[in-house]
Specification:
The chain is an all-alpha fold. The chain has two domains: 50 residues, no CATH class; 228 residues, MetI-like (MetI-like fold, Orthogonal Bundle), CATH 1.10.3720. It is built from 16 helices and no strands. The mean pLDDT is 83.
């Protein structure tokens, strides 16, 4: 029996209508947002890099050319005399030695102590563990300026050092010495916090397996925890290197002998020179040289630094 035309129309499926894509869909909005974010990041990078770039450019200029208006970003008469005069200045080598010795010693001691404390807070159980950790975190909220005078008095009355007697009187203690620059910075709660957050992500099964093999806590710490914590150790070490290499306030308070000057203190000497004029050309050259160690350290450990920051922030 043949189908009628009406039945044939019902059997043929309707042709779907093509929907017109709206201009400005989710993909378009996402692209626009991404462009805005990258534009903001690029503008912020230029803003933060501009002072450093100007410092580098000014270090190759003559003193009279630094203050020309309008300023020029490309030196017309570039010179290396600024670096030569800075390196030939008195005690410059001693300043860099002092900064390197103090900074590297602080990093080594602080990293060891902070890693050991972080391991105890992260993987060991003992009474008042969390309470002690919260008290330590609370000390991070105390402004550093509040502790300057108490720390100074404690260092001044260290017994049997710097002419002090058994009760800590009669001399200057650890004031104007390497001890005063290094010892107060050997413990840092921020480093302990960073490492503790990272070490909590280490599986407990690895530590339990090491205990089954007869390893003690020091062996577990040295052979299991530390190798797995290299990223966060590198991150905290770079933070510490950047801070203590550029530290100016604390050395300014306790150091009076030029033999103990660090690089920031030495650069401050060029601010008031002969005829009460600031040698900005030498200051710029010295600042560039003082920045290079921090930049090199970051470039060498950048991979560990970024990974340590990312993982510590997520755990």
């Amino acid at each position: 029996m043949a189908a009628t035309p009406a039945q044939e129309q019902r059997l043929v499926p309707p042709v779907p209508k093509k929907r017109r894509r709206r201009r400005g869909g989710p993909e378009h909005d996402s692209l626009r947002l991404r462009i805005l974010v990258y534009a903001f990041l690029i503008a912020g990078s230029i803003l933060f890099m501009a002072p450093f770039a100007w410092m580098v450019v000014a270090s190759f200029k003559h003193l009279q050319d630094i203050f020309t208006y309008p300023p020029t970003w490309i030196p017309h008469n570039a010179t290396l005399n600024n670096y030569k005069d800075f390196l030939e200045s008195q005690n410059v080598a001693r300043w860099f030695f002092n900064s390197a010795f103090v900074t590297l010693t602080i990093i080594a001691v602080q990293t060891i102590f902070s890693a050991m404390a972080a391991y105890c807070f992260a993987k060991r159980s003992f009474p008042m563990r969390d309470g002690m950790f919260m008290i330590g975190l609370g000390t991070m909220a105390i402004p550093a300026a509040v502790l300057l005078v108490p720390n100074y008095l404690v260092l001044k009355h260290i017994p049997l050092f710097g002419g002090n007697d058994f009760l800590g009187n009669g001399g200057h203690g650890w004031i104007d010495s390497y001890w005063g620059l290094i010892v107060p910075s050997c413990i840092n709660m921020f480093s302990i916090f960073m490492m503790r957050q990272y070490m909590r992500s280490i599986p407990d099964e690895l530590i339990d397996a090491a205990k089954v093999d007869g390893a003690g806590h020091f062996r577990i710490f040295a052979q299991v925890v530390v190798p797995l914590s290299k990223p966060v150790i590198a991150a905290t070490a770079i933070f510490a290197f950047n801070f203590y290499w550029n530290n100016f306030q604390w050395p300014l308070i306790i150091i009076s002998s030029p033999d103990h000057y660090t690089v920031p203190l030495g650069l401050a000497m060029f601010v008031a020179t002969a005829q009460h004029r600031t040698s900005w050309d030498l200051v710029m050259a010295g600042s560039v040289m003082a920045t290079l160690p921090v930049l090199i350290a970051f470039l060498l450990f950048q991979r560990y630094f970024v990974r340590g920051i990312a993982i510590s922030g997520l755990k």
